[in-house]
Design goal:
With 234 residues, this protein is of the alpha+beta class. Helix content is 36%, strand content 22%. The chain has eight helices and ten strands. The strands form three sheets. The chain has a six-stranded mixed β-sheet with strand order 3-4-8-7-6-5, with helices on both faces. It has a two-stranded antiparallel sheet with strand order 1-2. A two-stranded antiparallel sheet has the order 9-10. The chain is elongated.
Length: 234
């Protein structure tokens, strides 16, 4: 399942389901992003020709630079090491094939995560934003992994009811529809409850006739069908 997660609200902007053999970048090349978008992708989408195409279209990307990439540093800038940035450079590729596929200047940013101590090297075509902001953008990409984790844990997409292609696809799309409905309800109602809490409440009261907003907001419900003085909390 290939998902494009919109940073605003972390909602799926687009989803496509393919066979396991289909490479990430194969799907990535088919996507059309608005001009001046910032696309954060992992190394599974590494494609130098694609980086050039995105740049030509006025679309920014943030990814991790491959460790074996052959580069030449053109310019270096002063960095704020107290923010974890270890280097900020303008580079170009020197590998024979890579230089042909991506003959443009790019930006290389070194970063050390203060919490984990891990070191990262990012590659981007955005020269406007601060180096720390670029690092934060890539870090936000982790929301994609959290999205998949939430879907698997809460909507039982890890185990399938049927094994045919149609059954598997149907279950995946139903799970996504449920996620979007929950996200929409959370947005419209401005609830502070997590998506998981909302889902648990709905599961426990699935066959009860309750006002949805009253249920989710945890307001007092007076049970008139039994004892009019009886008050229950949800």
């Amino acid at each position: 399942m290939h998902v494009g997660l919109n940073h605003t609200g972390y909602l799926p902007e687009f989803v496509t389901v393919t066979e396991g053999k289909t490479h990430d970048i194969t799907v990535g090349r088919t996507l059309n992003f608005p001009k001046e978008s910032i696309v954060a992708v992992d190394k599974g989408y590494n494609d130098y020709s694609w980086y050039k195409q995105l740049t030509d279209k006025g679309i920014y990307f943030v990814t991790r630079l491959k460790t074996n990439a052959k580069i030449r540093v053109i310019e270096r800038w002063t960095v704020q090491k107290n923010k974890g940035v270890t280097c900020d450079q303008s580079i170009e590729f020197t590998g024979l094939q890579t230089a042909k596929k991506c003959p443009i200047k790019l930006r290389r940013i070194g970063y050390r995560d203060a919490e984990t101590g891990k070191r990262y090297v990012f590659l981007t075509n955005n020269f406007k934003l601060a180096a720390k902001t670029i690092a934060d953008i890539y870090k936000a990409r982790w929301q994609v992994e959290l999205f998949f984790k939430w879907i698997k844990q809460n909507l039982k997409i890890k185990s399938f009811v049927g094994t045919s292609k149609n059954a598997v696809m149907t279950q995946i799309w139903i799970a996504l529809c449920v996620y979007l409905l929950l996200a929409y309800i959370k947005f419209k109602s401005k609830l502070t409850k997590s998506m998981q809490q909302m889902l648990r409440l709905l599961q426990l009261n699935l066959f009860e006739k309750r006002d949805l907003m009253t249920l989710l907001r945890g307001q007092i419900i007076r049970d008139h069908l039994h004892d009019p003085n009886q008050i229950s909390f949800v």
